Structure formats: C-alpha cells, structure tokens
Request: fold
Amino acid sequence: MEKKCLLIPFFGSLLVFLLTCWTAAFRGPSAEWAESVSFFLFTYCMLERYAKKDTDGIPVVLMIMLGRIILEIPIRIDYFSGTIGSLFVTIVVLIAIVLSTSYWYKKKLYILILSLVIMMLLNTFGHDLWLKHVWGKVG
Reply:
C-alpha cells in the first residue's frame, strides 16, 4: 500500500468528524448515534477501497482513528477534566471503527448483527450510564 493512499482515509475521517461533530450540541445520545454509524460505514468503505489484503487493513484503520481524534488531542490534554463528559463519544466511535474492521475481515452476517447490537446498546444505555458515572446525573 502506498503512503499516499493512507492520507485519503486520514483526511476523509477528519471530514466525517467535522460533518458530524455538530450533533454534540443536541441533548442526549445524538452525537454517539451520528458519529458511530457514520464512522462504522466510513471505515468499511475505506477498507473495501484501500485495503487489498487483510494486512493492509491495520494502517487504514489507524489513519481513520487518528483522523477522528487529531483535533481533540490538544483540548483533552489541556482541559481533560472539563472534557470527560464528551469522552464517551470518542470511545464509542473508536469501538465502532474496530467493529467495522472486524466485520470487514470476516464478512459474516453474525458479526455485522453483533456489531450493530453492541453499537445500539452503547448508544442508548451507555450514554446514560456514562453521564451517571461521570456527573451523577442522567442527561
């Protein structure tokens, strides 16, 4: 795989993040839903396009993850305690990327169903549990 090809998943991931980050302005788990579904689909499409064999998948996935978190890193370093409430969105998105990768590797229906169930549980129940754990309230 050419190094030039790795820039496309990176900048594509950055673009997907910028297109979906505005959903964090809404109350509730809308950001988790929008970003996790978007990144699940984006990861699968990028792997189908740029990873010709199984070993090519890891660099593509790492670039997608880096593109997703690159803008958050300076903010989280400087002001981690103030951003811990939104950290769950990042965790759910990274899990969605890993789940999409596992589906791409095996391409089995049961892996897709299990991945979607895990994302659904994280996006619905995980949001309230995270807020309850972090701030002691459900939001």
The radius of gyration is 15 Å.
